[in-house]
Automatic annotation (TrEMBL), chain A:
Record keywords: FAD, Flavoprotein, Oxidoreductase
Upper lineage: Bacteria, Bacillati, Bacillota, Bacilli, Bacillales
FAD-binding PCMH-type domain: residues covered: 34-214
Example of a GO MF term: oxidoreductase activity
Family named by the database record: Belongs to the FAD-binding oxidoreductase/transferase type 4 family.
Cofactor: FAD
Protein name from the UniProt record: FAD-binding protein
Automatic annotation (TrEMBL), chain B:
Task of the protein: Component of a complex that catalyzes the oxidation of glycolate to glyoxylate.
The protein, known as: Glycolate oxidase iron-sulfur subunit
Protein EC: 1.1.99.14
Tagged with keyword 4Fe-4S: yes
Organism expressing this protein natively: Lysinibacillus odysseyi 34hs-1 = NBRC 100172
Domain 4Fe-4S ferredoxin-type: 2-31, 52-76
Known cofactor(s): [4Fe-4S] cluster
Catalytic activity line of the entry: glycolate + A = glyoxylate + AH2; (R)-lactate + A = pyruvate + AH2
GO molecular function list: 4 iron, 4 sulfur cluster binding; glycolate dehydrogenase activity; metal ion binding
Length: 468, 429
């Protein structure tokens, strides 16, 4: 290891970006999911050349390398599960160029989606993907995990916006995929292969992203329901009426109750669900659409519908949704946020299954999330020190995955597989499906040095939700 | 309380939402110096996975600005975790410290800071040093280079301190200008404030008087204890807190008012400090409810503005005013209400300036890096301000140092909010 430090210091000579102190290693041993793994060294490269040299070194000595953004992953993406080198790319923020003619952004891996969107707004453009961690998480991490957010319903997710990448391969070679053109069918689409590969195939050192014109106006509406099934039907009917909201979020009874107990916003706690809708576009068009949404909700037995008259009122309506996270952890400290996703039409069935699972395992489960695209966030609140409870939680989460897959859905809508969900890959993809993915990994990374232990389960790996 | 606040660390879900709010993470560029990193280190130390020495640097370099608490979606009690770590480390270090250094430190905190007499002597010396012109001579001869760089840097920006005679002559009682006092106010002077910036205290009381308050300075008041608390000396802090609570209880004040963001935060946290003493908790709560920043009182009353001030003004809030006292609008509103002011808001104003109690003296180099970040935002303003307003003596000195370091002393003046209000009301100290 001493030797490794010396070699890395030759690549990064300024002495401040190769971290080996115990406190530093401990500080890169976790992310926002579960598990703590100490790396041997942390490096903070600031150029493609440095990344390439580090990977050449690691590949030669067969030392694992784990790319990391700001460590907001909910699936264990950057965890150094086999020790080795954590490569912190969050400090590499040097490039953020807006190409207004081509409506593109060209960015370094450490830039946040929020920063990209802010820079775009100056030119009347937007970068739509909006993971809730967008002002912290790096674009490198967003690309590696193919992150999405509430706006996924109308605008799609990260992969829908990336058209070109600079990537360093596990063997330390630099390649460029795609480019600045909207259309490009030259060879395999390696851009889309890298996006969502969770840092197992290459390290993204630069990205070319599409931007959209900023919508002229937005409208916000909140509808309260006495039955969550009615809310589910209202959602389907809004969408089948040809209206695609920018955001369509749902909160169940438990999340409304938690928010009201935490910081009262004046919501009635005897409702079964509420939905929040944001429409954007031409002011005249959305004025008409908001009226139609209002009518659909009332037809589906909404107790009441409120349309925000001002931007402040809209912010007030969204406040309840924002408060869900702090509100629910007041009950117990450990929060397990899931992102199993089902086809839109199966949302009411998924709600039913979640209700059954909640009762069966006697767990504190609240459901909220991006109802419009079927990406619900069942959140379980527990206490990690209560081992008996954590066992029940593990079983409940397994059953949530099963339910999602049985309903034609997927293990993960936007958080990624990482270490956490690796044991369930075969359940969704089948043995051959997993094997084909493994073959791609082997071809790209013959020495298995890049983010090993992710996506593919280790032999006999079990699903575990503890930090020890 | 000499153990780590382990239970509190467990409510951190490590989401990282605190990272962009943390000045040390932004400046020092590693997770170790982020709130999430520090909470994890405290947790690991409590679990015996790392040693106290391993977490020392990270804890020492925390500013304690508590901006992270405002971004935390799960309400982690960062202040409590930090203070527990400081206290545990202080105890741990004390065991290792050479006895001489230990005596010096104990003397400084137990005797000098809370002792009005010694402070007065120091204040007198400082005033004498400035008034006699020795300051200029010493500056010219470079005599001050014998001082450590950190003190030397502050030497050039020290305020003109009121002489002890003038300070001693200051009134102890200000009758309201209105026929009946609107409010009866006990004024909290603070130690550093009353030595370095006593004229701001005088102006504060005159402003309150003009706004219809009857103001009394009670002799029995003492140090708020903030510096002790931030150095891990919570027993001493508790002692000081009890002294203040007892002192003010004897009077019938509607409010206990101060002009010091940092002290105000400490006074407001007496209930947390004394939570384990049932006989004190209720008294602490009563005291803390009455204790408010001057901007809160003035924003409820009417000030007799006499002049229009044609200044371009920006405002650097005190972290403890914003994040602990949670007073964001009142001081801002007071600045903006001054007639004639052209207000320019400072980007990233919520980021600490690096003053942070005595951080800028004991962690001088790190503090200057944080200050440089702050000054970048000041210099990037589309219009250069003539004035930077602060609400705390520490921020005041630090911003002054920042202006000095950027060579802008001719262009930009740093003032306390109270000074600007007094100028607009035609009040002199």
């Amino acid at each position: 290891m001493e030797q490794l430090h010396e070699l890395l210091q030759q690549v990064i000579p300024d002495g401040e970006r190769v971290l080996t102190e115990k406190a530093d290693l401990a500080s890169y041993s976790y992310d926002a999911s579960f598990g703590v793994y100490m790396p041997e060294v942390v490096v903070q490269p600031l150029s493609t050349c440095e990344v390439a040299e580090i990977l050449k070194l690691a590949n030669k000595h067969k030392i694992p390398v784990y790319p990391r953004g700001q460590g907001t992953s909910l699936s264990g993406g950057p965890l150094p599960v086999r020790g080795g080198i954590v490569m912190d790319l969050s400090q590499w923020t040097s490039k953020l160029e807006i190409d207004t003619e081509n409506m593109l952004a060209v960015v370094s891996p450490g830039v946040t989606a929020q920063a990209i969107n802010n820079a775009a707004l100056v030119h009347g453009l937007i970068y739509p993907p909006d993971p809730s961690s967008m002002n912290i998480a790096t674009i490198g991490g967003n690309l590696a995990e193919n992150s999405g957010g509430p706006k996924g319903l109308k605008y799609g997710v990260t992969k829908d916006y990336v058209i070109g990448l600079e990537v360093v391969t596990p063997e330390g070679e630099v390649i460029h995929t795609g480019g600045k053109t909207m259309k490009n069918v030259t060879g395999y689409d390696l851009t889309k292969l890298i996006v969502g590969s969770e840092g197992t195939l290459g390290i993204i050192t630069e990205a070319i992203l599409r931007l959209y014109p900023k919508p002229q106006a937005t409208e916000t509406l909140m509808a309260l329901f006495d039955d969550i099934i009615d809310a589910g039907r209202a959602i389907s009917n809004i969408l089948s009426a040809g209206i695609i909201p920018a955001k369509l979020e749902i909160m169940d009874k438990a999340s409304v109750e938690a928010v009201e107990a935490y910081r009262p916003t004046g919501l009635p706690t005897n409702i079964d669900a509420l939905i929040l809708i944001e429409l954007d576009g031409h002011p005249e068009a959305i004025k008409d659409e908001i009226k139609r949404v209002n009518d659909v909700c009332l037809q589906e037995k909404a107790r009441s519908v409120q349309i925000a008259k001002t931007a402040e009122e809209a912010a007030q309506l969204w406040l309840a949704r924002k408060l869900v996270s702090p509100a629910i952890v007041r009950v117990k400290p450990t929060k397990i946020s899931e992102d199993a996703t089902v086809p839109r039409s199966k949302i009411p069935d998924m709600f039913q299954r979640l209700k059954e699972i909640k009762q069966k395992y006697n767990i504190d489960l609240v459901v909220f999330g991006h109802a419009g695209d079927g990406n619900l966030h069942p959140n379980i609140i527990a206490d990690e020190r209560d081992t008996e409870e954590m066992k029940r939680v593990e079983q409940a989460v397994e059953e949530i995955f099963q339910a999602a897959i049985e309903l034609g859905g997927t293990l993960s809508g936007e958080h990624g597989i990482g270490t956490l969900k690796a044991p369930f890959m075969e359940m969704e993809l089948g043995a051959v499906g997993v094997d084909m993915m493994k073959r791609i990994k082997q071809a790209w990374d013959p020495n298995d040095i890049l983010n090993p232990g992710k996506i593919f389960p280790e032999p006999n790996q079990r699903f575990v939700l503890t930090n020890d | 309380m000499t153990e780590l606040a382990y239970q509190e660390t467990l409510s951190c879900v490590q989401c990282g939402y605190c990272l962009p709010t943390c000045p040390t993470y932004i400046t020092f560029k590693k997770e170790t110096h982020s709130p999430r990193g520090r909470i994890n280190l405290v947790k690991m130390a409590a679990e015996g996975k790392i040693t106290y020495d391993d977490m020392t640097e990270a804890i020492d370099l925390c500013l304690g600005c508590r901006a992270c608490e405002t971004a935390c979606p799960t309400n982690v009690q960062y202040g409590k975790i930090l203070e527990s770590a400081i206290e545990v480390l202080a105890k741990h270090k004390d065991e290792q410290l050479k006895s001489r250094v230990k005596t010096m430190k104990a003397f400084l905190f137990n005797q000098v800071v809370p002792n009005e007499h010694i402070r007065k002597v120091l204040g007198t010396g400082l005033a004498f040093y400035q008034k006699t012109g020795l300051q200029k001579v010493a500056q010219k001869m470079g005599v001050l280079h014998v001082l450590p760089e950190n003190l030397h840097a502050f030497e050039t920006i020290l305020p003109s301190v009121e002489g002890p005679i003038k300070r001693a002559k200051r009134e102890r009682f200000y009758e309201a200008v209105t026929p009946q006092p609107v409010l009866k106010v006990g004024f909290f002077v603070g130690c550093i404030m009353d030595t370095m910036f006593s004229s701001i205290n005088t102006l504060s009381m005159k402003l309150l008087q003009q706004a219809g308050c009857q103001v009394t300075v009670i002799q029995e008041q003492g140090c708020c204890g903030a510096l002790h608390q931030h150095s891990g000396l919570s027993n001493k802090t508790q002692e000081l807190a009890k002294r203040n609570i007892e002192a003010f209880e004897r009077y019938d004040f509607d409010y206990v008012v101060n002009s010091i963001g940092g002290c105000g935060a400490m006074l407001g946290e007496y209930p947390q400090l004394l939570a384990d003493s049932p006989e004190w908790l209720e008294r602490a709560e009563r005291f803390s409810k009455k204790s408010v920043d001057i901007s809160v009182i003035l924003s409820q009353l009417t000030l007799p503005f006499k002049k229009s001030l044609p200044y371009k003004v920006t405002y650097q809030p005190s972290c403890h005013m914003t994040n602990v006292q949670k007073r964001v609008n009142e001081p801002l509103q007071m600045v903006q209400n001054i007639p004639g002011i052209d207000f320019i808001s400072l980007p990233e104003a919520h980021m600490c300036c690096g003053s942070a109690g005595i951080y800028n003296i004991v962690r001088y180099k790190h503090s200057m890096k944080i200050l440089d970040e702050k000054m970048k935002h000041v210099e990037a303003l589309a219009q250069q301000p003539n004035i930077i307003v602060t609400t705390n003596p520490g921020c005041h000195l630090q911003m002054k140092l920042g202006v000095e370091r950027e060579g802008l002393s001719q262009e930009i003046r740093v003032v306390h909010l109270v000074e600007l209000l007094a100028e607009a009301c035609g009040i002199e100290a």
